[in-house]
Amino acid sequence: xxxxxxxxxxxxxxxxxxxxxxxxxxxxxxxxxxxxxxxxxxxxxxxxxxxxxxxxxxxxxxxxxxxxxxxxxxxxxxxxxxxxxxxxxxxxxxxxxxxxxxxxxxxxxxxxxxxxxxxxxxxxxxxxxxxxxxxxxxxxxxxxxxxxxxxxxxxxxxxxxxxxxxxxxxxxxxxxxxxxxxxxxxxxxxxxxxxxxxxxxxxxxxxxxxxxxxxxxxxxxxxxxxxxxxxxxxxxxxxxxxxxxxxxxxxxxxxxxxxxxxxxxxxxxxxxxxxxxxxxxxxxxxxxxxxxxxxxxxxxxxxxxxxxxxxxxxxxxxxxxxxxxxxxxxxxxxxxxxxxxxxxxxxxxxxxxxxxxxxxxxxxxxxxxxxxxxxxxxxxxxxxxxxxxxxxxxxxxxxxxxxxxxxxxxxxxxxxxxxxxxxxxxxxxxxxxxxxxxxxxxxxxxxxxxxxxxxxxxxxxxxxxxxxxxxxxxxxxxxxxxxxxxxxxxxxxxxxxxxxxxxxxxxxxxxxxxxxxxxxxxxxxxxxxxxxxxxxxxxxxxxxxxxxxxxxxxxxxxxxxxxxxxxxxxxxxxxxxxxxxxxxxxxxxxxxxxxxxxxxxxxxxxxxxxxxxxxxxxxxxxxxxxxxxxxxxxxxxxxxxxxxxxxxxxxxxxxxxxxxxxxxxxxxxxxxxxxxxxxxxxxxxxxxxxxxxxxxxxxxxxxxxxxxxxxxxxxxxxxxxxxxxxxxxxxxxxxxxxxxxxxxxx
Length: 746
Known about the structure:
The structure is a single chain. 36% of the residues are buried. The chain has a domain at 246-322: Gyrase A, domain 2 (2-Layer Sandwich). It is rod-shaped and about 160 Å long. The protein has 746 residues and is an alpha+beta fold. Strand 10 and strand 11 form a beta hairpin. The chain is built from 19 helices and 35 strands.
């Protein structure tokens, strides 16, 4: 026996390629993409057809969903029951389908969790009235029936849709190498565009968009995509649609009453609560979900005070949560030629109208054939009535009455059979009158059908009349209002932080923390073993905190992100990358436009804006040129450049006061200008600037610290030390010639 004759040998490459292409075509044509004619995927079509075969129309009693699923997967769709049931549930959810095709009884999921539906053994279902528009003409010769998967039954290749269902409920699907995302639309708008296209076949996309203004989701959320973008989407078949929740103000609170398509109240509440826990919504105190059967969507937001700008708060939430959501649009579907293609609006409607014209033509031809057959039978019956005695004689005397009747009266076999099957009671005179009346009626109908089939204009009129009737019966008002709005923008981080006073404390070993308020005595806080207080700066949580290292580089971070002063804080080296051997010397916190004096202990410095210290990188940026072995002094804040005075003191007890206006302002930093004169010999002996302070003219005062002693110098005292910038200054009283630091106290 030759075993090789039982199989084919082909290269593995060819086999894999062919198998994958076959699978790909199956997924594209028979699973993932809808057909332009009825707008359904195969599983949806089979579910609707199986339910019609079970007699589950809108006026019938519902049956268990398991019964329907069993018929679908047993007769037409050999796939998993759970996938089939999920597709069935989707067609029954009013929040998923714009025009549901199935009327479900039982738990078919909710907007909070669309997949929380009960098992199919618990639920019951039947078709909705609008599903009749897919099935009404099924038995009228309008579709081709093909064998099912095992060849034992017949199923329709498509359903004879009376409306462009492909746009009404939309579709989503992922095939191999392509996908589809068709949004739902309003029935009346789509029908209006179809009628316009029937009247004006050369109409452009812009004219059709006057009827189809945009998608219409099964939710009252606003569609905020500009009309120009919607028109471009319908012209290309690709684009996106942005939806935004609807809210109202009640008693100082915000009440959200409509959410974007496929967004649940619980998800929004969770997203907002997550931001609140992360302290990114300081303007919001609480959120409450008050949704119920009467109010499917009711989310109440409680602001912290009546001074909160509610519109600004909602704009931020639109940008950071699913309260505003964008949906991809990809009008990809199987065309009348059996090939997938991304189609524009005119292509879709044109193809569907051609499909509808073919369907109506087949329906009329099917009806015409039935009318002509009936007239043919009635003609034979009329002959029998006119020759009733002769017909009875032939039937009684002839062994084979059928050929005798055919020969005697020139009847067809069909007419002869019909005469022989006629009951005796139908031979009454009254029945003959009924037959004549029926024949007249049918002849009138045949003439009408022939007129329609022979005239394209009459056929168009019939299609338009049927579309108008269906739109009037099943259409409704638009649910998703079209509102022109700009896309939401999130607020800056500073706008999301409560503005509170804060004191930033820096330790000698570079650990940082932030204490609430300005009444904190930073030097008295607890420090890690071997560590101590170095510097502190007062500001607000909405400001940036800047740190300057011993090489003159500046680093910055938002003040509200610093750890609490209840602990020891955290090392700044975890946030920033310092040069080798560098340490942190100073800290400052202020608004970006505030001015301050930067200086080194060698007596050089300059005025700059605080924004120059802000560095949006871990490595910081060079702001102050520091000579070897020099130290950065604590920056001094300037309130009024024209009237403020700079006070400089050395550790040897020399103090100088001069106008801030005498010190140049630099934007990019550098070494700066000389603040106070320190002779080279004194520098060599270790004289350095102990600190720099800024005081207000006429009312400022400073405190000098020299070991255990301190001296408060009021304005009248400071005037005695006034002079020109870069002068030597005056010598402080005995006992204060070893100054450690200087502080502004008034």
